[in-house]
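Deliverable D4.2, example record:
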Amino acid sequence: VIKSLNNNSVSTYGEEVRAFEDKLREHSNLEAIAVNSGTSALEVSIDCYFNQLDRKEKYNIGFCDFTFIATPNAILNTSNNAIPFPCNPDDFLPDLGYLEKRLKNSLNLDLFVFTLPFGNFSKNVEKTLNFLKEFEIPIILDAAASICLDFSKIKHVIEHSCISVCLSFNGNKVITSGAGGAILTPDECFSNRARSLITLHRI
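Output generated by the structure prediction step:
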């Protein structure tokens, strides 16, 4: 951050931003796009995913109600329907019984923004990801508040049909630049769309 300020290169094209993205790419083995916040990472991910589809109506996007307000805000800011689902009080993960009941009662979910709890990956996280994959629901992983995120397991999570992983580098996070965020994705085309979006719209 200090080097960027000293070089007067605070921009989406700054050399330090590119160096930071390279480090993220090296640690995660995924495409990395730096943005200005974890919320922007969510908004850009949602926009990029639905921009590749032809439908024009609003999409139904599910999320667990144990999350920060930024999660539903990102869904609403992209002009989609935010559908909350209750979480289990013991692990703060979605109540899969309730979710299954809603899905079998003809609720159509086009996407699920899955907030990764503070602790990190667990067997119940795996169970939730496998459940969503079974119902063929694409996933954006919101890891903005996961203070113990293990990069070595991100590749494994992506295999569960995750479109992208959204990170936050706010001042209260373990990895921080004072502010900012990032998108990780295995899809180079998705990465190019995201980079174009943040460059044109200065997100």
